[in-house]
Amino acid sequence: MAGVKLCYALRRGVFYPSAKDVFGEMPAREHRRGYLPLVRSMGFDGVEVGVDEAGSEATARELADELHDAGLDIVCVRAGGALNHPLAGAKARLRLERAIRYAAWTGAPVVNTAMVSPATDPTGPGHERRGETVSQGASRTAAEQEFLHTAEHLRHYGELAASLSVSISIEVHQGSIADNSTATLHLLDLVGLPNVGANPDLGNIYWQYEYPEETPEAAIAALAPRANYWHCKNLQRLHIPELKRSFFQRVPLPDGDIDYRFAIAAMLEAGYSGYVAVEGAQLGDQLSQDRRGLEYVRRILADLGGD
Question: Which CATH number covers residue 46?
């Protein structure tokens, strides 16, 4: 895994005295003077940010300069939404285009998109897309035409991204048409562009159903050759067969059910040279928990001779 770098995919931005807690957003600027040097001192090379859909090129470059002054880069811009959805698709496509341009403005090499569909029944079975026998918006209920139309959109935006020296990473995500290795590889084959790859988020496969569709080992072995970005999070599973449900607890990378020693070895064998993104904790002292995840990854890389 020569050349691999470490990204902070922060999920909780609370940092005293700021109590701001918006998914994936850093503390407000006036509180980042202490926050950003701390993130850098932990050993991260850069951060993932959500696209600022109302932002301008000037504000995007201002944020990139602020992080650069702290020794960090913006390495990924996060988009999302089902590109082919009849109602939500137009907004998702606009968000993806904005993310591509935002990435170009900030110098981020990759845009991550999780193509999650809106729940068809917001209170019905599978609407949470976690731990049940069904999952709304899953690939197993998708028609081939949905794959074809989604691939058409991805090809269009992939070509735009290529013209701006940006790659697109399809996040393997529950509740989306790309929710396991088979579906994601099929979609990538239909797109057929070298700058459109996979984000093999093993946690999202693990927690979608009562029983995972595939093992983390099988998923990473299949997806590693097509990966161009990588979210790493870990979970502990509690299965209650009487309820036909599994429940999941987010934990630091060393403490969960997913074997990241195996996963990192598989990525190394495939020649992966992108960012390993530690997907951060959402509760408690996230910086201490995420430091443990970062140190765990670095220790495994050292054991495997990859860094």
Answer: 3.20.20.150
Supply the mean pLDDT for the chain: 96
Residues 41-61: what's their mean pLDDT?
Answer: 96
Instruction: Note down the domain range covering 183.
Output: 5-304
pTM as predicted: 0.97
The pLDDT of residue 2 is 52
Residue 1 pLDDT greater than 50, yes or no: no
Sign of CA dihedral 8, 18, 62, 114: positive
pLDDT at position 307 is 53
> Residue range 94-121: average pLDDT?
97
How many domains are there within the chain? Answer: 1
